[in-house]
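Entry 14: structure prediction run for Tryptophan--tRNA ligase. Input pasted below.
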Amino acid sequence: MTDDDTHGGDGTHPTDAGTDAGDARTDGVPGGEGPPAFRADGGSAAGADEVALDPWGSSTVGDYRKLFEEFGIGAFDDVLPEVPAPHYLMRRGVIFGHRDYGRVARAMREDETGPDEPADAAVLSGFMPTGDPHIGHKMVFDEIIWHQERGADAFGLIADLEAHAARGLSWDEIDEHTRSYLLSLLALGFDPGDGELYRQSTNREVQDLAFELGTRANFSELSAIYDFDGETEVSYMQSVVTQMADILYPQLEKPRPTVIPVGPDQDPHMRLARDLAARMRFFKVTEGYASFEVDDAERELLARAYEALEAAHDEASPVRCADAAGWLREHEPASDAREGVVESLDAAGKEPLRPRVRFLDRNATDEAFEALIGAIDGEKRVFEGHIDTFDMDRDAAEALAREVEVEHGGYGFQPPSSVYHRFMTGLTGGKMSSSVPASHISLLDDPETGYDKVKSATTGGRETAEKQRELGGEADECPVYELYAYLLAGDDDEFATEVYEECVGGERLCGDCKEQAARLMEAFLEEHQEKREEAEELLDELDFELESPRTD
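Run finished. Output tokens:
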């Protein structure tokens, strides 16, 4: 969650959202008509770097495909059919990836019973107040508001502790920008009566949670993730743990699916938050086959062995661990996983090999462990550090473990989900930079200034009008087309498609295209700033500390 000098690193608290102008798909919106989507499997903006996920750096992502391969981010296309009435940023591939978003989509889909029946889900994002909000931030604002409109509890936060620790801003500067971010969020439709706005420095619950999470993290881990060293200020490290608390804050009331809209550079925050959520749990639920614990690779081998052997055995003559060891030696190639699991099987000898769900004691109190034993129906076996059940599937076991944990004072956190949006190309080409005014449009720019910036923007046009008509424009490499796809076309897929097809077909020339985009931008800024003025009174009525009590 940062607002760096180039694209504002959208993170845990996304602060900027642009996108690299990826190669465009021509197959339209999955399942229907729509504009070509930005590819989630490749494509890059001019000057894009190789994959480097640095939450406070200035890197872009040169190849989004590598995020799937290297970091386990899933393609959003895979979950898109599960999303009720998806936002146009989802339909057009601007939101290109996710972690575990299916559980959030499922919560919204299952609770589609009307506006008075909120979804059992939450959305949170935040903003580091280091400058004016701009069109990149608007994407994140829109994502929060879209989820809120679909019944999710919405949280918007000002990451002021991070701005002070990581960027060195004074509290007066932070206060000035804080007001501006909140006005734009409210002007775009955030409902404060049905959501929560807060700043890190005045939210005691977040700070208390950060303290507890800090007991599960250490310097070596933060150094490995964030490249901290002996010169790193303690407050800087503390701001990371505070971000983890922000991510999990919506679950303090109750465990529930929670999505954090982020840029891909912020994924290290999401991975750490998911790890910490698991470490805070009383119980870990896994699947097993014998009394000993195995890793995922070993579990796969056990599953294959059991499937191969079970047909030849019955209740009177069950599959034994020794049988599985022999089968693996004969049928599976040598590997570390095979050798490890065979060693465990040999030690277990005649113990029956049976599928079971296992509750591992991670941090449970004695009372919680005993309560879980009593809550498990059917056949079970109790060991010193875990409980095996033979009559329960994993989903039911997860729900039971969470229920017992919460009843006995635990958090019961669900792993937080995330969606990832592309970085926006700067209007001058290459990276969007807060320090280069011509490369971005601030939501506070005069409408005439916005008009002029679009008119001066780099395009994906050919060298001459004749070549443009003959070869067509390169909309996939055009910052101006991005403006249409990300903002100016709004929810109108037909219009976005029309602009794209006219461009690549040679019918649309850059001068006319930029004039239309400039007029639309001018109108957007004029309307937005009118709504910001209307939001002034609403903001002043909110229970929000616009002036920090802290001093530099």
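Notes: Residues 1-12, 14-36, 38-59 have pLDDT under 50 and may be disordered. Will compare against the previous run tomorrow.
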